[in-house]
Each structure stands twice: as structure tokens, then as C-alpha cells.
Predict the structure of Acetyl-coenzyme A synthetase.
Amino acid sequence: MTTAAQADAKVYPPSAEISARAHVDAKKYGEMYTASINDPVAFWGEQGKRVDWIKPYTQVKDVSYDLGSVGINWYADGTLNVSANCLDRHLNTRGDQTAIIWEPDDPNEPAQHITYAELHRRTCRMANILVSMGVRKGDRVVIYLPMIPEAAYAMLACARIGAIHSIVFAGFSPDALAARVNGCDAKVLITADEAPRGGRKTPLKSNADAALLHCKDTVKCLVVKRTNGQTTWIDGRDYDYNEMALEADDYCAPAEMDAEDPLFILYTSGSTGQPKGVVHTTGGYLVYAAMTHEITFDYHEGDVYWCTADVGWVTGHSYIVYGPLANGATTLMFEGVPTYPDASRFWQVCEKHKVNQFYTAPTALRALMGQGNEWVEKCDLSDLRTLGTVGEPINPEAWNWYNDVVGGGRCPIVDTWWQTETGGHLMTPLPGAHAMKPGSAMKPFFGIQPVVLDPQSGVEIDGNGVEGVLCIKDSWPGQMRTVWGDHERFEKTYFSDYKGYYFTGDGCRRDEDGDYWITGRVDDVINVSGHRMGTAEVESALVAHAAVAEAAVVGYPHDIKGQGIYCYVTLMNDREPSDELVKELRTWVRTEIGPIASPDVIQWAPGLPKTRSGKIMRRILRKIAENDFGSLGDTSTLADPSVVDNLIENRASK
Ligand code: WTA
């Protein structure tokens, strides 16, 4: 896999035809960008009108990045309801238009077309069910569902009554689920009997049962029927969604929320400790999600838009549910995987539903690229207009394949760089405004001021052809507001290393033309198949096993996943390495965190390279994992330099 930096950067300017139809062309981008930086209050004051307010705002922005008093407020004196913006305001003009196309895992099962009117009714019923279970404004609801329409109903129902949702990806284990239920002290957990994916079924309800053993007795469980699979049932704790929905009222009045009331919590991995609950609020988030959805994808009225992410990740929040529905779009929700029943599934779904905008992750493209072009070529993809990628850097081979084979050279590719914390896209080329370079996120979105800092001094590096850590000056409406229950951790993680900036955790290069290239994380966060993971999480899972004395985990380049998980494990004195133990540890980590954290390589390490003060030198472990022994750097500060030779000798040959 070549990295973007190694490839000579070919430039693809936007075609005149695309620029002419786009919401934003080069000239307009220049004007709007300048306006957004020169007078953010006027700019965002105007953009705020994209959504309907119950009480209009008079204040636009009130932000401080000062350590000790970090506070981020947008539209603070306005009130609104997100579900009313995604549903009610469309009823007069597009009640009969499809809001959600649902494509099930099994292609033989019929797809569903859910109109805005139907989505409104379903959401209201779900909201009334939650109210009847005792959920009130400000309460937390954890959602652990497959990619089924009920996931969207549940999100919108929470938003409707002012409850704060926290979605847990259905691939997470019972332990991870329990930690998230307890982390936000949830009142209700919404789950389903089973989650079909790629022809297999994940037993969500029994995972939920296992998780709830570690939660307060008062947590109630609302269960959606998906497969009719057998589940155990605890009367008084478990509630039958399908039965209750038959009785529930079709209307529930939307709650009037302050712009800065929390909309959702989403746990994400950081460089230290356990995942943190990223908090997004109501007004600014919705404005930013709606605006980026429209402009980045150049979405037009009547388009069919498909984002293949899961609602368990931020991409699903902003770009399957909130952004598209706020814009009155038809958004496709896919339950399955790209390779089931075969490698043409994505493209068959595009053909079947005449998809216009398609948004996916590089890891999926790399996996499909390896299966050959015939899977794409047998499908009619003539409706595709904009292609997008997200989650990790895209290598030029995958970019070229996406552009040539999937897009037929006609479709601009928006390489969107952003994070759970940012709520929406921060950098991306815009279809009608910018040239594209394979692997580059190109240009900042409106209001975004990226800066490249010297990692040591923290000083801004001006000019082009420079590299450093990526920070953002000033705020934007979609920015996270705090870490749930731990504002201090919020300040420390994002605002303490480089004073006066939001620190992204990513490295970046600004090339000779002033275009941006994300070079990857500069902290101990790795990106496995587009899933973000803290190496510390995998380490703490490993050391929780009785055989493990110590563990150090690093990422290493992986052809399909982007990065793989490489674990160095020191065993307890009385334990011997064996293939069985490797298998056992893999299963152990899958149980502790979930299948997405499954170690790719486990190398036995009699010792780990540590400084005299006991700090593990991860730089060295990364190089060994990369098979790059020539540039280990200075090892003389190690307490015992000989451990390095041992690790090199025994580097797992996988
Ligand atoms: C990485 C996903 C390169 C980056 C929306 C970031 C990317 C982390 C890109 C956030 C991209 C995301 N090019 N790298 N287009 N998009 N990343 O929170 O390292 O799951 O910090 O949000 O993914 O991952 P998260």
C-alpha cells in the first residue's frame, strides 16, 4: 500500500458541468470562506436559519478556549427541537416522500420505503413508549440496535422528548455495553432480539442481558423484534416494543429544548484510559450537520443519498440521520455488509435504489478492490454523482479505483476529514469548487481555521510545504461541548497541550499548494478498519487475563484494515507461550471489548523496552511491528537495551 505522500500527486480539477450545478463553486467558496473567518457571528448567524427555531436566537457565539474556563456556546438563547426539524417541518411539503429507504441484510427480504409522515408517526409512538417507561427530559437512553429503522425512530424519539441518547455499536461486547450504560447512568436500554449481518446473527438481547447484570436494577430494557429469535424475558424489566407500538399514540409533542441542551453522548477512544463520552448539543450540531451534508455531497432536492456507516458511529449520527433528515433528503439505511451475499452488494444496492451520493470508508473499498472489477461493472451506476470517503486516510490505489471503476471518472470524491468530536466535516474538497488530489482532504470547510503547529514548541508553522500537528483555531457550531461527567478531561485532552487551540490528535502536512493531507494520529489512538481504538483499551483488556503480566499494543500497516492491532505480551512467570494461549487471548479481547478489537498479531515479549523511569518506549515497538529495524533511534536510554534484540529476533512472522 503506498501512502499518499509517496505517490506523485495527480490533480483532478472539477469539471465545468459539475461546478455549474453545484451549490458552491470556486468563486463562491472563496467568498463564503473569507466571510466565515472575517465575521463568524454574521456568517453563522445567517446559517443558523437553516433550521427552525421555536424561540429565535439573538446570541450567535460565545466561546472560550482558556484553560480552566473552556466553554463553547452557539445560539445559546434560542430554543428548538431536533426531531421537529427532521420531521414535522417537512410534513406539509414532503409528507409522502420517502425519508428512509431500508435495505435489509438479506437481499431477498423486501426493502422498506418509509415516508416522512410514517417516520413522524413511528417516532412519536416510540417517544410515547419511552415516556410511559418513565423517561423524562435530560434522562439518558442507551441504544444498542442493528441497522434497522427502529434505530432512527429511537434517536429521533429521544430528541423529541429531550432525552439524551448514547448509541453503542452492536459489535461491542456485553462488558463494553455495561460500561456505557453505567457511564451515563441510563434509565432505559433499547435493543433487539438479534442483529443479522452478513448472514450471521449477533444475539443482541442476550448480550444486553449479560450487560444488565452489571448495571443498576432500575434500568429497563425495551426490546425490538427483528428476527423473532428466542430471548429470555424478565418481567418488569423487559418491555416489548412491537406490542407497545400497537397501542401507543401517533402524536407526541416535541419538547422545547435550549440550543445548548445535550442531544447525544457518543463514546469514543482516546489515547489514555477508558473511552470518553463525547457530548454534542442541540442547535449548533444540527446547523452544522445539515449544512455540511448539503454542501459537501452537493445534495439536491430529490436525490437518493447513501452513507454506509453504522449509526453506532458519529458518521451514522450526522450523515445517515440528522443531517439528511434535517435537509428533507431520502437517506438509505443498510443493515448488511459490503461482501454479502457477494462482493457486488454495495453496487447492487446503488443500482436498485438509484443512489446519487455514496459515502463509505477506505477499508471497504480496499476489500472490494481486491475482489476484481467485474463485481462493480455488472451494475448500472449511472445515477451516482458524488462519492465520499471517511474515517482514515485513503491510499492512492483505492482512490484511483473508486474514481475510475466505481465513479467511471465522472464523480468527484470528497475525502472528508473529521472526528467524533467535531460533529461534522472539517476538511474536504467540495465537488464543484476544488480540485482533488488522491489522498488529500484538501480544504477547510467554512469557518474552519486549520493550523499546523510544531509539535515541540507549539508554535504555528506558516507557509506551505510544511508538516506538524493539526490544531484548529477558534470554534464551529458542531464542536463537542464537553466529556460527559468530566469537563476537566475535556479541557485536558483538547486544550492543554497547545494553548488557545483545539488539538485534533492528528498530524498533517500542508503541501506546496496549501492543500491539507492528514498523516495519521500522533497519539496512541489507532484506526482499524475505520474504527477508532485506544491502544490503552486493548492493553487493559489483555492484562485483565490471568496469564498476562504486561502488555503493550501498537498499530502497524495492514493492507485492508489500514492499521492492524499488534500486541506485545509478557506472560506471568508460571505461564508458557503456546498457540492455544494466542487463541485464548484473542477470544478474551473480543469478549472484553468486541470483535473490532481482535488482535491481529500477538508477540510474546520476555521484556518490554522501558526507560529507566519505567515508561514503555512505544516508538521502538511501532518500528519493530512495522518490520523497520533500521531506524529504531536511540536505544541507549533504555533500562535494558537487550530486550530490543530479543523482540527483533522473535518478531512474529505474520
Ligand atoms: C481519522 C470519524 C484521514 C483521523 C469521522 C481522525 C481520517 C479520526 C479521515 C477520527 C480522512 C477520519 N482522512 N484520516 N478523511 N477521517 N480520519 O472519531 O485520524 O471515528 O482523528 O471519526 O479518524 O475518527 P472518528
Remarks:
- The CA atoms of residues 544 and 553 lie 14 Å apart.
